[in-house]
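Issue 218. Parser rejects a valid record. Input:
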Amino acid sequence: MSADTLTFVSSLLALVGVAVGVLIALLPTELTRKRDDYQNIAKIWSIVRYDLLKIRKFCLDESKNIEERLKAGLMEKADRPEEAQLQPVNVGRIVTTTWQIVASSGDFITATDAREIDRLAEIYAYIKMTNEEIDRYIAFYSHFGIITGYAVNVISRIEQHYKDMQSLHTKIAAGIQNFETKMSREIDLYEGKARVQKRILIALIILGWIAFIALVVICFRFLHII
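Output the parser choked on:
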């Protein structure tokens, strides 16, 4: 074999080796990044779904409790109705930090349709409004202390607070119910994308090693020929 041919073949093998090395180094890194992004988006959707389903149950329970108390009456039993004391409904604020997770995730917001982000924002806006209404009710009720049947206007306003809270609880529960299927689909979608990236990653790693081994074998055969 001439010196020129030897130089050419050596250069070609070196070029192929560099190409295989670059392929093994860059493609898995990019695929790993995409897989991690998809897994992160699926995880956020899972957190959102878990949080909202828990909130939906809470709102349904609160709404039912308020409705039953309004039907049964808020005043205790007394010989003289005007001296009966008001028995308040125990209401609790909706505790959640999930919206902050959604709002702070650029990848999630970029990957999610703007209309779905708006639907999420609307649900969490109602949650915020509900908590504000509860705070107003607590501030108003605690200002008066013991309330008897004489305070007709105060009782009427408290009843209105309960009705407003019940209405907000109902809207939140309905909004979450209408969004539940979408959340499940998004989780399945991004978990599926993550699995595909993982399979491609494994396949490329295997192909890269096969190509590397084949290159080594060719090099040994070439050296044997020399």
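Fixed in the parser; the record now loads. Residues 3-225 form one domain.
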